[in-house]
Specification:
two-stranded antiparallel sheet; elongated; 69% helix; mainly alpha
């Protein structure tokens, strides 16, 4: 059956983990951005956990309200958001966008902006920073760059 508990669980966990990993990558980029611009970071960790776990959990729960998790066909080894006989006609498009793809694109855009901003700031600082600091920051910028490459290719 395409809509077993195991399949629905796999789809739920997959969606949640994909989104959480993207949010954490964005959080890394944001932390680097805050640090390089020397901005205050009060309650950063508590807020970061709330956002990186909370938003993915909420948007991953939403497709359950219209029974949208399952396999698209019998031959598919993968369970995700799919069209079911008891789900609304608009369901697959809305849930694909709202519970996954919009968040992927927001993350890609935000990561791109943050990385470019950090690199421009490093360039502005020029010789004011130690080489080891520049090296560490540029290495941290690779996390969002890798995420952008993985999700956009």
């Amino acid at each position: 059956d395409n809509f077993t508990f195991q399949c629905i669980f796999q789809a739920f966990v997959t969606n949640f983990n994909y989104l959480s990993s993207l949010f954490w990558t964005t959080a890394i980029a944001y932390k680097v951005w805050l640090s390089i611009h020397q901005l205050p970071q009060s309650n950063y960790y508590r807020r970061t956990h709330a956002v990186c776990w909370g938003i993915p959990l909420i948007v991953t729960l939403l497709p359950l309200t219209t029974n949208m998790y399952g396999k698209s066909d019998d031959d598919s080894p993968w369970c995700f958001i799919t069209d079911r006989s008891d789900s609304p006609e608009w369901g697959i498009l809305v849930w694909d966008l709202c519970s996954f793809y919009i968040w992927v694109w927001i993350s890609i855009i935000l990561n791109s902006v943050l990385v470019v901003s950090v690199l421009l700031r490093l360039r502005q600082m020029g010789n004011d920073l130690e080489e080891s600091v520049k090296w560490q920051v540029s290495k941290l910028c690779l996390y969002p760059v890798v995420a952008i490459l993985c999700w956009s290719l």
